[in-house]
Amino acid sequence: MIFFVKFSDALIMTQDKGLNRSAAMKAMLIKAWRERWTASQFGTQIKTLVTKSSPAEDADLAEQILSLSANGPSPNRLLLDLLDHSIASQLTSYTAVINSLSRFTKYNLPHCTAAFLNLIYKHRTFITSRGQIEDFVQFSLSLVSLATWLLHTAAATVARLSENRESKVDQSNLYLIINVLKWLTTEDSLIACIFYTGKSEDMELHQDLIIAAKDLSKSIEQLHMIIPENKLQDQLMNLIQKIRAPQPSAKLKLGRPKSSLILSIQSLVSFDVVLNPTSDLNQLASQLSVIMTMHKERLANMVCELTRCCMFGLNDCCDRWDAFTLLKLNRLVEKIQENKQDHREEEVYEGLMKVLQYNHLLNTIDAKCKANAFELVVTSFSPDKRKQPLITEMHCKQLLAARQQQIEKRLQTEGEFKTNNYTESRDINMIFKADSTLQTIIKTFENRTTDSNEFENLLSVMYHIVKGSSFDLLLSAASANGTLPHLVSKLLFFNKGTQESMGESNKVAQNRAALFDMTFLMLVYTVQCFSTSILSPDAEGIFPRWARLCMTEPGNVKPLESFKELGGTETLVDGLLQQMMQGEIRVQVIKWNQVCASVHEVMKEILLGLEMGSINQDTYNRLLQQLSNKLCCFPICIASWLVSSAHFGDEDPTG
How far apart are CA 139 and CA 193, in angstroms? Predict the structure, then answer.
């Protein structure tokens, strides 16, 4: 007896707690509507009342939102948006939402009915069950309840149309019901099978479904008088027959699930593009070939997904993605083709043709890139850009004609895409221009020496290289076509050749200093982009030694002890300080490699002098200005030393 009393008290307490939680949830939803909460605000607050692990709370949240959203003649859009957020964050499940929706019987509110039908239709591709086997069974039953509600709603809608034939919202609802029923019975093979499983799980629900189907069959007879379209009547009758059938239709296609190939390759390709832009593609091609074998995919699908992956990359407005897509993608496909022996010649063409189904993606990329991106990709595979083309001239024309038809259709319906809608739009054609310019530059460098009469010509070439964003494009193109090591070796050659001179005029000395400085800066930027691994192990001169020993890299601050290995001398430091105190640093017959090795010691002496009071603030500022104005490489060398000093300090000079 005592046990039953305690059990009864516990049950009452649980019920009271549930009622209190429901009341609190309702109050929060009303507050969210009044204060116009954003989805993120609501998501943060509702978690104090709802947990993902409680089915009761899950169902209660969906019930509360749907009931409150249909309190008036028109639906509450804000609450429906909060329901979208709750589904996306898995605070409520599709099973709970569908069950709550199936209990809606206010057919005199057609606009609310339309909102709920649109909710199901919008989410139809995502509706599933994410739980245990028991949850899956409940999900199948919820689909049966949904079908019953759709049939009742259709019958009520027909009845309303018999009273008001001109009701557009009711006509729209009828078409929506047909579309949802098609999805439920034929369009989605998985959902259709789950629906038929649910019918066999609960006979009572099945009987309710049959009764609703009979009621709708009687109402359909009125449709011909209301809407003189035999197709609509035939569609409903056909759907009712499929719903009544004990088993799925034999014509239901249980095709292969959608390929998740892009999910497997996106991270691999992105790593190669962003973090390893100088790779020779051999490793990436081998990895992608293994993925193809594991997924049992054809080369055509791989070409399609690789191109699509690159299109997503182009959306990021990154020079490296531009270079990879237009200069390396065709070589990657060629290497995969070599690894995959059992392929047909037309598979590359078929893969590129499949890319055209992503019409909206291509349109967006065209607007951001100020060009027909698909045409540029196809051209990179064609005889125009390759000695051994991957597609024929005829295939190239067919692909471009198909894309042109899409563009013309878009212009007729949507008008011209405005690139100024995107703040980061750029001209992707510049990569092709950078590629051809790079070949010219390398040929020019091949014919140049470090004789003093070549300095002016070399400076002119260097100026055009670094002007604007040209150097970024050239580096991206060089890393993609494999000429980056050669370009770096030539810059190192010119930098070493201008380090010192035995005798020169003032003009030649200034040109030599400018060329040394410019090549030093270009090499610093290149190493920042590609790390010191781009430097040849046997490279000579001050820059390779300084970069490896002293240059600060991401996650790699060099120890202070390394700066002593550059070979700076106290005599040179004293001479530089004396020149600076007198007014200006000399440029004639100066060994810039020794100056760069000692300039951090000059800065150290200046800071010590300021700290000890040997120089005042005005002198300190004047000396810093001289260091900054003479050569741009001086502040860079000093900055690396300052970073190391701040990182390690005087206590641990070796790091």
Answer: 12
Q: What are phi and psi of 526, to 5 degrees?
A: -65, -45
Q: Are 382 and 393 in contact (CB under 8 A)?
A: yes
Helix (H, G, I), strand (E, B) or coil at 553: strand
pLDDT class of 13 with cuts at 50, 70, 90: very low
Single-letter amino acid code for the residue at 402 = A
Q: Collapse the DSSP code of 243 into the 3-class scheme (helix H, G, I; strand E, B; otherwise coil) and give the result.
A: helix
Q: What number is the average pLDDT over the span 527-539?
A: 89
DSSP state for residue 184 in the 8-state scheme: I
CA distances from 614 to 129, 583, 610 (A): 77, 17, 6
Rounded CA gap, 481 and 340, in Å? 23
Report the candidate in 367, 426, 376 with the shortest Cα–Cα distance to residue 400.
Answer: 376
The span from the CA of 568 to the CA of 275, in Å, is 35
List, for residues 376-405, the tens digit of each pLDDT value. Answer: 999 999 988 888 889 999 999 999 999 999
Q: What is the CA radius of gyration of the chain?
A: 36
Residue 544 CB neighbours (<10 A):
21
Q: What dihedral do alpha carbons 603, 605, 609, 614 form, nearest 10°?
A: -120
Instruction: Please list the alpha-helical segments (H only) found in 423-483.
Output: 430-446, 455-466, 470-481
Least Cα distance to 91 among 39, 14, 134 occurs for 39
Helix (H), strand (E) at residue 546: helix 542-549
CA 69/CA 64 separation, integer angstroms? 8
**What amino acid occupies position 118?**
N
Q: Three-state SS for 556?
A: strand
HEC assignment per residue over 61-74: HHHHHHHHHCCCCC
3-state helix, strand and coil shares in percent for the chain, rounded to the nearest 5: 75, 0, 25
The strand pairing partners of 550, in sequence order, are none
How many of the other CB atoms lie within 10 Å of CB of 238? 15
> Which residue reads 């050239």 in tokens?
474
For the record, the structure tokens of 165 come out as 């034939």
CB 139 within 8 A of CB 95: yes
Q: What value does the mean pLDDT of the chain take? A: 84
pTM of the model: 0.62
pLDDT higher at 112 or 3: 112
Q: How far, CA to CA in Å, does 203 sit from each of 99, 137, 141, 206, 637?
A: 17, 14, 10, 5, 82
Rounded distance between C-alpha atoms, residue 275 and residue 164, angstroms = 65
**Residue 35 one-letter amino acid:** E
Residue 75 φ then ψ, to 5°:
-70, 155
What are 506's two structure tokens?
């003032």
Residue 132 has pLDDT above 90, yes or no: no
CA distances from 556 to 318, 525, 532 (A): 25, 16, 11
Q: What is the mean pLDDT of residues 188-201?
A: 83
Let me know if 122 is exposed, middle or buried by CB neighbors in 10 A (0-12, 13-18, 19+): exposed
With contact defined as beta carbons under 8 Å apart, do 343 and 337 qualify?
A: yes
